[in-house]
Design a protein that fits this description.
By secondary structure, the chain is an alpha+beta fold. The protein has 9 helices and 4 strands, in the order ααααααβαβββαα. The chain has a 4-stranded antiparallel beta sheet, covered by helices on one side. It starts with 6 loop residues before the first helix and ends with a helix.
Length: about 230
């Protein structure tokens, strides 16, 4: 009878199986943890049976303890009580123990929740890097850049070429109408370019962008004055 076997030998077998499972899964070799979970659960059930034998409890139902250990350990690790109960029932080949499997699954789920352990597959999923890394985002600001008579820019394509890399042209306001900025579109005096920029750099970019809509002579004058101050 298993009850006469050394309790410490089964405990050592359980510890060895657990450690070897860690090493085999961490190695990255194909195999997974599904079958090792069932094996550890079966040894755990045998350990409980042996522990009861130390206190004089003799029972011929060793296979029942093994199956209950498999169900309890699987459900505690995966946190799927119905799946665990049905799975072990199929392995047992009889529905006679299904109520016991359900009861053990409920106890295992409650115990795992009280210990605040995470389901194993949720933990493994959290270790997978996201397909699209999280990007740092900042608020956007829309700048209205007017174009005056004599500006050096006459088409949307010219404006896009001279925009800084962090600016996005989203539209052209002509009166009260917002137009789509297709490349060949002509920019008329009085038009306003709608440009999206990072809100943190909006002030500096606005000073630079306003020069694009000014008459050419005024733009040159501003540049010369800026050079004189530097």
């Amino acid at each position: 009878m298993l009850s006469t076997m050394s309790f410490f030998a089964i405990a050592l077998l359980l510890a060895a199986k657990f450690v070897f499972t860690l090493f085999s899964y961490a190695s990255g070799a194909p195999g997974g943890i599904f079958l090792p979970m069932l094996a550890i659960g079966s040894v755990l059930g045998g350990l409980v049976y042996s522990l009861l034998g130390l206190f004089g409890y003799q029972s011929p139902y060793l296979p029942n303890y093994i199956l209950l250990g498999m169900a309890g350990f699987f459900v505690a690790v995966v946190r799927a009580p119905i799946t665990g109960a049905v799975l072990i029932t199929e392995m047992a080949g009889s529905f006679a123990h299904f109520p016991a499997f359900i009861f053990v699954s409920i106890i295992a789920t409650l115990t795992a929740n009280l210990l605040r352990t995470k389901p194993i597959y949720d933990s493994l999923l959290a270790q997978i890097p996201p397909l699209y890394p999280e990007q740092i985002t900042h608020a956007a600001a829309t700048l209205h850049i007017p174009f005056m008579e004599g500006s050096s820019i006459h088409q949307v394509s010219e404006l896009k070429e001279r925009l800084p890399g962090e600016c996005i042209l989203t539209g052209i306001m002509r009166g009260e109408e917002r137009l789509f900025p297709y490349p060949s579109m002509e920019i008329l005096p009085g038009d306003e370019a709608l440009i999206e920029v990072d809100q943190r750099a909006a002030r500096l970019l606005k000073e630079e962008l306003l020069k694009l809509g000014m008459p050419t002579e005024d733009e040159q004058e501003i540049k010369s004055n800026g050079a004189a101050f530097t």
